[in-house]
Amino acid sequence: MVENRPWANLIAHIVLISGVALVVFPVYVAIIASTHSLSGLLQGTLPLLPGGHGIENYTRMWQSGVSNAGAPPAALMLWNSFIMAMAITVGKLSISLLSAFAIVYFRFRFRMFFFWVIFVTLMLPVEVRIIPTFKVVADLKMLNSFAGLSIPLIASATATFLFRQFFMTIPEEMLEAARVDGAGPLKFFKDILMPLSVTNIAALFVIMFIYGWNQYLWPLIITTDPDYYTIVMGIQRMTSEENPQWQLVMAAVVMAALPPVLVILFMQRLFVKGLTETEK
Amino acid sequence: MQTKRMTYPGRFLPYALLAPQVIVTLIFFIWPAGQALYQSLLREDAFGLRSTFVGLENFARLFRDGSYVNSLSVTVVFAVGTTLLSMTVALLLASTVNRMIRSRSTYTTLLVWPYAIAPALAGVLWWFIFNPSIGIVPYMLEMVGYQWNHRNSGSDAMLLVIFAAAWKQISYNFLFFLAGLQSIPQSLIEAASIDGASPTKRFWTIIFPLLTPTTFFLLVVNVVYAMFDTFAIIHATTAGGPAQATNILVYKVYADGFVGLNLGSSAAQSVILMVIVVALTMIQFRFIERRVNY
Q1: Sign of the CA dihedral A82, A83, A88, A93?
Q2: Is B285 on the interface with A (CB under 8 A)?
Q3: Which residue of A24, A118, A264 is in closest CB contact with B116?
Q4: How does pLDDT run across A33-62, given as a tens digit for each residue?
Q5: Which ipTM was obtained for this model?
Q6: Which CATH class is domain B57-291?
């Protein structure tokens, strides 16, 4: 800051505190609502202080869910979300690392062609080709399975481009030295490229994990068996009821939001790195 | 496109390395996209037994159809509203945080975490606090004499989904604006203030113009977000209603295809959306090349 203006500083803090309040408010309301009984919530206005039913609501949501709304226990849905998010993240990272390695360290026919094939995935979000993709997955008998939940989402142009860019900055001498020492391509990949890429992998891991965890449309259409419901889509089953049990819905919302929020809070630097680099 | 000066010789290995990515892309991206393209030229009979080639008829029908034209204009309102609201708030917060020295990282942490909240959850959260019977905001609005009801009023419903979508996107825009602000040389701002420019004047004549690349980049990203990533917000809250007031294009593709089972029309809508994404991606890429030397 250039000059010292106490008043301007005060106003700046007021602006920021209201900004933070605006951002926190919906989540605060959710946390409060998850600690009341349903009748407490329906009494008229929403209470703004915690009530005494928190433990009861969370235990009930965790253990039994809302069966008449078709929502299985949150423990199961959280587990499913975790598996799906991990499968998508690990899948995306590994196939992108391999293809970036091939594109940078080899010369072969149709290289440009493959590059464009990968590029296309950037342009076809699942939302716009939802019905034909659903058909393909149905024909492959992958409905209601973890393979169906994750594999169609693991192609990633952004990750491939990012790794390609990063590999291009690795000094030529690395490869020369490795070849002089007699390292083959796979050994070079495993012992030199991978260790050098650790930070990039970690940064992308954070972004991809959040992406995978927050999937909605895809699990919604390909799972009809409650055993495969993920938490983000399972919540929709509970709110689309005639009279939603808001205290349980909000408990589920808090549980669904917690893992990715914790990831961001504890790995903020990696998260910022991943976010700003993938979008370049 | 370059490779390294020295490369590995390989006859089969590079193909094997590329295979997983390319196979997934072919099966789950290119093939379905081709199917959509093909389907969009066909029309199925009422029983789904036979389909006939109808050329561009599906597209022509769409544009004659009032509900599609309505969906287009709803999408424009939604995308513009979401983008403007979330970018304005984010720019205000980022430029304020940027003045701070000691508290900068605390405020940043407090402002970035909504990025992690799924759009569907953002929708449910706002749906809940705006709930006409038990929500807190309608209660407060009633005190100033406004009857909030997003179940009947199309404009209320639109505002609700804009709020939810913009809220979730603030943290993203904030991070990029903050990065943009931090890359502006401090000497320019000091020089201006020695010449007697007030903070407001400095913002509009120096900072804002230098932020143009960031702003433009975020405009494209936000429009893409509002058009494609917000499906969950609509689906988890208004379901396109009331009376199609929030029926944005991505939601309509899903509703017409899965619920209405009108495959030809849904495929034609998919194709139109693909054209829009391709155009937006191209704009984004051309712009990124230019961003380097502003």
Answers
A1: positive
A2: no
A3: A264
A4: 888 887 777 776 677 787 778 788 888 888
A5: 0.87
A6: mainly alpha
